[in-house]
């Protein structure tokens, strides 16, 4: 039997005799034992070295000789002192940056063989290029990557050079290989984990943050668990003043939860780095105790004066990663972003808005500053960017008036540039936000209708229903799309799908309301409105008893009817039928006296954020109630709740019996911006 001088030689021999994509139980067992032995070695050596004022440079394994340790120390020092030739380095990175997929990266290696400094960049670029692909494209590209003849060589080179890599390159290589889908039981990943364990004391904050995010997402295998345990033991042995130990704690906090969270909680006051604090916030996650999340957010608030522009943006995503809506911190970051909005690229602004939606946070000043900045620099943004931004604003119920007007003008001038997906998004945005283009409305609707008709031959029934639904919300019913939608075959397909999807069922019900109440001009092939026989359950909204009581005190009980449901979908809190001759109606004509007044409450979600401009659901309700012979009176719940009993009666008196009859739909008072 051959003897080995060290555990490293034994591991290398085992790896050489094992397939690259196969990891046997012997390697797992030996690696796990080395992890645990290393933790013990770190503990004992730290105790000895702490009194001498030295920093531990290399952990010694139970089966390592002093000669092996010396060799690796020399290799590490040589790696940090020898810089690559910039002339030779530049062409490789230039070609690497132009690679659009993992196989392009591997093909580049035919011209530029991978060196020690290139390995981490190769893995990172392959991962980066795959992130921008669709799921199907990514699956195909990764399959081609695994089958590429040079991929195995790169993996072999990574394992060979792992002991000489810088800590940052080591962390990024591990993160990229795991995210590329390399099995965590392969020799590549297990070797990187082993080297990470040995070199952990040399990791800086950035490298530890990358390692933390990687370890947190990895499967809980024996080797990964052993690394987490080694990190925990390592944290015990470090002095409490060493803030790096807190970052190490992040690596195992998700699974070693109770112990890790206690350590983290005690050391939060020591943190002085904003980037480091944000890494911990993201690592803590949504399942941690609310008290720990608030302590981290409070610490971040105390460091707010040190926030750079990128710090403010990452704070939104960090709080979203924790699932914590900490309003004082979000308000500070919103103010900083609003004041320096021109310093942020499009992707970061979009990330901020998506985090706001995830956190259910609204800030009128922040939203207005972003929308005005994009509107003022409108020519530099593509259709895709503007649509992504507007879709996010619509999810936040915010109506960026200037930006919508500018985009509508572009659509009128260049409608042919819209893809089908763009068109459906545009129709959704303008209809759900109930945006009034005023004198431009006719041109805008004509432009989008022309684009829709060009896609009619290949338009699926569901997308056709969606498009007609959005146009119907804008009170526009183009003939060709409506004719195709009302064909028997198309309706039969949609009715079949409606049994499975509630959304399609509600769209068909709304289509039925459009046909019966708005009475659009039917195609010549139809002599009457088709019977769709669609019924939807009414929204479970209770009558507002405060409003009902206040209205009774104004008009009495004889002229009042409460809890009225129209068309099985429109709930009215109370209907007032005015008598022919009363003190209040003596100045009105007989036709106006007989008119019914529909009083109903509207929650804040019925309005665009920061204003009392009605969204689509409220706007269509107002329109249809008028066609049914009612005079609709909307009572904003948020405004009503802030008033006393006498003020409520006075407000309802003004809404129901205004001094001057308004034209069109009711104008709701108090139209001013608000921040939540």
UniProtKB/TrEMBL annotation:
Biological process per Gene Ontology, one example term: mitochondrial RNA processing
InterPro entries: FAST_kinase, FAST_Leu-rich, RAP
GO MF, one annotated term: RNA binding
Subcellular location(s) of the protein: Mitochondrion
Keyword vocabulary terms for this entry: Mitochondrion
Predominant subcellular localization, coarse grouping: mitochondrion
Start and end residues of each RAP domain: 597-654
A GO CC annotation given for this chain: mitochondrial matrix
Cited PROSITE patterns: RAP
Entry-linked SMART domains: RAP
Annotated protein name in UniProt: FAST kinase domains 2
Species whose genome carries this gene: Cyprinus carpio (Common carp)
């Amino acid at each position: 039997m051959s003897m080995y001088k060290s555990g490293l030689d034994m591991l290398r021999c085992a790896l050489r005799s094992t397939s690259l994509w196969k990891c046997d139980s012997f390697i797992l067992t030996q690696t796990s034992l080395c992890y645990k032995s290393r933790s013990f070695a770190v503990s004992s050596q730290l105790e000895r070295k702490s009194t001498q004022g030295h920093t531990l440079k290399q952990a010694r394994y139970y089966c390592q000789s002093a000669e092996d340790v010396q060799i690796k120390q020399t290799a590490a020092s040589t790696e940090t002192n020898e810089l690559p030739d910039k002339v030779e380095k530049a062409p490789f990175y230039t070609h690497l940056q132009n690679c659009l997929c993992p196989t392009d990266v591997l093909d580049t290696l035919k011209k530029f063989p991978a060196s020690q400094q290139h390995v981490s960049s190769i893995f990172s670029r392959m991962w980066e290029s795959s992130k921008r692909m669709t799921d199907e494209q990514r699956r195909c590209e990764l399959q081609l990557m695994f089958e590429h003849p040079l991929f195995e060589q790169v993996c072999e080179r990574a394992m060979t050079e792992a002991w000489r890599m810088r800590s940052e390159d080591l962390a990024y290589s591990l993160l990229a290989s795991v995210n590329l889908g390399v099995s965590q039981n392969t020799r590549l990943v297990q070797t990187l984990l082993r080297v990470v364990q040995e070199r952990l004391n040399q990791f800086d904050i950035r490298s530890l943050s990358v390692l933390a995010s990687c370890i947190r997402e990895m499967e809980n295998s024996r080797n990964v668990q052993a690394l987490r345990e080694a990190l925990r033991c390592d944290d015990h042995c470090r002095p409490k003043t060493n803030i790096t130990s807190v970052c190490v704690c992040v690596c195992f906090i998700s699974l070693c939860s109770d112990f890790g969270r206690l350590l983290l909680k005690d050391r939060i006051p020591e943190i002085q780095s904003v980037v480091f604090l944000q890494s911990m916030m993201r690592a803590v996650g949504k399942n941690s105790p609310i008290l720990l999340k608030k302590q981290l957010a409070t610490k971040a608030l105390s460091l707010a004066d040190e926030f750079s522009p990128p710090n403010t943006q990452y704070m939104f995503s960090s709080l979203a990663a924790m699932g914590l809506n900490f309003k004082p911190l979000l308000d500070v970051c919103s103010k900083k972003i609003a004041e320096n909005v021109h310093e942020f690229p499009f992707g970061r602004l979009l990330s901020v808005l998506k985090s706001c939606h995830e956190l259910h946070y609204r800030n009128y000043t922040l939203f207005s500053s972003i929308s005005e900045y994009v509107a003022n620099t409108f020519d530099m943004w593509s259709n895709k960017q503007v649509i992504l931004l507007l879709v996010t604003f619509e999810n936040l119920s915010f109506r960026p008036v200037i930006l919508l007007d500018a985009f509508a003008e572009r659509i009128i001038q260049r409608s042919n540039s819209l893809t089908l997906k763009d068109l459906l998004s545009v129709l959704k945005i303008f209809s759900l936000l109930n945006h009034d283009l005023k004198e431009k409305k006719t041109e805008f609707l004509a432009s989008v209708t022309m684009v829709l008709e060009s896609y009619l031959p290949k338009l699926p029934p569901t997308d056709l229903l969606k498009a007609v639904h959005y146009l119907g919300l804008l009170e526009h019913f183009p003939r060709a799309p409506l004719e195709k939608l009302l064909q028997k075959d198309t309706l039969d397909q949609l009715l079949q799908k409606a049994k499975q999807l509630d959304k399609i069922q509600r769209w068909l019900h709304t289509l039925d309301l459009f046909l019966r109440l708005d009475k659009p001009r039917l195609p010549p092939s139809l002599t009457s409105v088709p019977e769709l026989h669609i019924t939807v359950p009414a929204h479970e909204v209770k009558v507002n008893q405060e409003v009902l009581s206040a209205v009774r005190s104004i008009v009495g009980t004889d002229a009042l009817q409460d809890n009225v449901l129209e068309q099985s979908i429109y709930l009215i809190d109370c209907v007032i039928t005015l008598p022919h001759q009363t003190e209040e109606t003596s100045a009105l004509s007989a036709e106006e006296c007989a008119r019914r007044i529909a009083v109903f409450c509207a929650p804040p979600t019925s309005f665009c954020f920061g204003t009392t401009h009605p969204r689509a659901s409220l706007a269509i309700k107002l329109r249809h109630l008028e066609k049914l012979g009612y005079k609709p009176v909307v009572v904003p719940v948020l405004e009503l709740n802030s008033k006393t009993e006498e003020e409520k009666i006075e407000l309802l008196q003004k809404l129901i019996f205004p001094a001057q009859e308004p034209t069109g739909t009711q104008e709701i008072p108090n139209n001013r911006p608000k921040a939540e």
